[in-house]
Amino acid sequence: AKRAGRGSCQFFSADMNAPFAARLWLENQLSQALERGELHLAYQPQVELRSGRIVGAEALLRWTHPQRGAIAPADFIPLAEETGLILPIGEWVLREACRQAATWRAAGLPPLMMAVNLSARQLRSANLLERIDAALQASGLPPEQLELELTETSLMDDAEAARELLGALRARGIGVAIDDFGTGYSSLAYLKRFPLARLKIDRSFVCGLPDDGNDVAITRAIVALAHSLGLELIAEGVESAAQREWLLALGCGGGQGYLFARPLSAEAFAHRLAAD
Ligand code: C2E
Ligand code: CA
Ligand code: CA
Ligand code: CA
């Protein structure tokens, strides 16, 4: 039992709903993770499927807690969304990813697209554009080297506002990719009204290639849709050579997945890029 009289410990009792307490603990820890320097970014190569050449990097958030060790994004990003902590954390991700891409560029490595995930909450925040501009300016990264990954659901949340934002991003030369494409229920009619650069075929479809007939059909349909709308494609979660062959045959140009590389530390990524 916790001793009474030691700050917040006295509020803990055997009755306390354990998941609730765990959530409060996690939220408290997450609110301090940034200033404690516990967050960092991993970078996963995005490749041209035909050649395997690295054309981009997706920045993926990592949290290493001093006691609990690595905590998976799936275990803390939803919480960060709900609490609003994703706003300061997401801004840090944006600045850090831009800084890293600019550093690689300055070091003479081949220029690449830096893809940054944006949550629905960030998309709805009033000063997002100013924050993006500030991150680009502070880093010196050309806007053409930044791509933002958004989900269908967050776009459809407020389609009119999203369309305006995407227009402003396009005017700056910043690309937008739809993440996890095919898992939301976006209306195709809306899709063509957004100025988009790319669709990312969700891993759940790639996973079933080539044996699952439904996944083949869905992937084929997404590729056809992207081609007819003039959008680029990246397949997520490419793990096998057979999946790569199928994606190429279906007409998908880009890929990302363990077949090529896991998410890497900045150092390891730079080595890969230099050797590419
Ligand atoms: P996502 O955007 O769909 O990112 C791709 C996820 O798939 C990553 O998981 C990556 O490690 C994993 N992955 C890549 N290739 C393969 C593969 O071949 N096989 C399998 N099984 N998995 C693969 P991760 O890093 O755990 O991130 C999970 C999710 O957390 C991301 O999904 C994204 O939605 C979210 N996330 C990560 N970083 C950020 C961030 O900075 N901001 C926001 N808002 N969300 C983030
Ligand atoms: Ca993503
Ligand atoms: Ca994704
Ligand atoms: Ca996915």
UniProtKB/TrEMBL annotation:
It comes from the Bacteria. The keyword Transmembrane helix applies. One of its GO terms (biological process) is regulation of DNA-templated transcription. Keywords: c-di-GMP, Membrane, Transmembrane, Transmembrane helix. GO terms for molecular function: cyclic-guanylate-specific phosphodiesterase activity. This is cyclic-guanylate-specific phosphodiesterase. It comes from Plasticicumulans acidivorans. Residues 23-276 form the EAL domain. The chain holds residues 545 to 820 of 820 of the full protein. The keyword Transmembrane helix applies.
